[in-house]
């Protein structure tokens, strides 16, 4: 059972970094730091969008319009942190 919990925590950690990478990539793309016509850049951006958008879309629907500022990645990171800490402090000790 501990192996399952460790695998879930590892998946949450990987998703955490994918959300941060997606946010940074969107800033680089918005400010024309990266070349959008480059095939590698496009495929990385497409991958990050497809991985993170299903989790960010419901949060964006709930949040009010903040005038171009998207805080949905921050909200999602807080949710992931809460779930991770809940698993490590409540679920894991109960199984040991």
From TrEMBL:
InterPro entries linked: CCB3/YggT
Membrane-spanning ranges: 12-30, 74-95
Alphabetical UniProt keywords: Membrane, Transmembrane, Transmembrane helix
One Pfam family per UniProt: CCB3_YggT
Domain of life: Bacteria
Signal peptide: none
GO cellular component, one term: membrane
Entry similarity comment: Belongs to the YggT family.
PANTHER family cross-referenced by the UniProt entry: PROTEIN COFACTOR ASSEMBLY OF COMPLEX C SUBUNIT B CCB3, CHLOROPLASTIC-RELATED, YLMG HOMOLOG PROTEIN 2, CHLOROPLASTIC
Protein name as catalogued: YggT family protein
Organism, as annotated: Nitratireductor pacificus pht-3B
């Amino acid at each position: 059972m501990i192996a399952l919990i460790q695998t879930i925590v590892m998946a949450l950690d990987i998703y955490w970094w994918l959300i941060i990478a997606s946010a940074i990539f969107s800033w680089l793309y918005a400010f024309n730091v990266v070349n959008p016509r480059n095939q590698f850049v496009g495929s990385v951006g497409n991958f990050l969008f497809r991985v993170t958008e299903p989790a960010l879309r419901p949060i964006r629907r709930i949040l009010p319009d903040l005038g171009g500022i998207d805080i949905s990645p921050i909200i999602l990171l807080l949710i992931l942190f809460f779930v991770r800490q809940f698993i490590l402090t409540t679920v894991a000790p109960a199984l040991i």
